[in-house]
Design brief:
alpha/beta; six-stranded mixed sheet; 11 helices; 6 strands; globular
């Protein structure tokens, strides 16, 4: 079985994708990322058409390796919103036995957020912690800065230890600040985007890049 045998992309689609990557490589020229980091950044550019991600994307030194390892062992992905799970390839996730979880639409989460005057995203992270999904899992945040801020609080208090945080919330209120705070921590590893840009589509692209790297790693030389 090839490294990407479970991928649903057709040969025609693969040709277009590889052609797009070649254009991105050519138009980007030089960059400061490692080969594995660039595979992720290139997918961010490919998914958005925005070359600003060459430079805005920031990596903890151990982030890519942590992501590959977590996916390879079937670690859960905790997403802040349902859009992330909807955008991910279920075939590729199934290769490693990875499940995606999100609780922002859970009725109990909503009720607690209303009662306590917090956001649904905050309560969703607390629910993920109660279910034991944050420890050793991948946290994927593309929409809600408060989800990232709450998880950082849990980490500081020793209540959660994700294997990797992909923190890319988009927006104008606390988005840039939450990502700056993420980039200041040494553990766990993280991947983020400086400034206001971000979004669930970019988180999906980042995870797909890590899945491709995990597939290559699994296949071996």
């Amino acid at each position: 079985m090839s490294a990407r045998a479970t991928d649903q992309i057709t040969e025609a689609g693969r040709t277009i994708e590889q052609g797009s990557f070649a254009i991105i490589d050519r138009e980007t020229g030089s960059h400061a990322y490692s080969d594995r980091e660039w595979q992720l950044v290139r997918r961010l550019i490919h998914s958005s058409g925005d070359f600003d991600f060459n430079g805005l994307t920031r990596f903890h030194p151990g982030a890519v390796g942590a992501g590959i390892g977590a996916l390879a062992r079937g670690a859960p992905i905790v997403a802040d919103v349902a859009m992330i799970g909807a955008g991910l390839s279920q075939v590729r996730l199934a290769r490693f036995g990875v499940a995606v979880h999100q609780f922002i639409a859970d009725p109990e989460v909503i009720a607690t957020a209303q009662a306590e005057g917090t956001t649904r995203a905050v309560q969703a992270m607390r629910e993920a912690k109660r279910k034991g999904l944050l420890d050793g899992g991948i946290l994927a945040v593309g929409n809600a800065p408060t989800a990232l801020i709450e998880t950082l609080r849990l980490i500081r208090e020793g209540q959660a230890k994700p294997a990797l945080i992909i923190g890319m919330p988009v927006g104008f209120v606390s988005a840039a600040e939450s990502k700056d705070a993420l980039a200041e921590i040494d553990d766990p590893p993280w991947i983020t985007i400086a400034g206001r840009k971000g979004g669930s589509t970019l988180v999906v692209a980042a995870i797909h890049a890590l899945l491709a790297l995990a597939e290559t790693h699994q296949a071996g030389p």
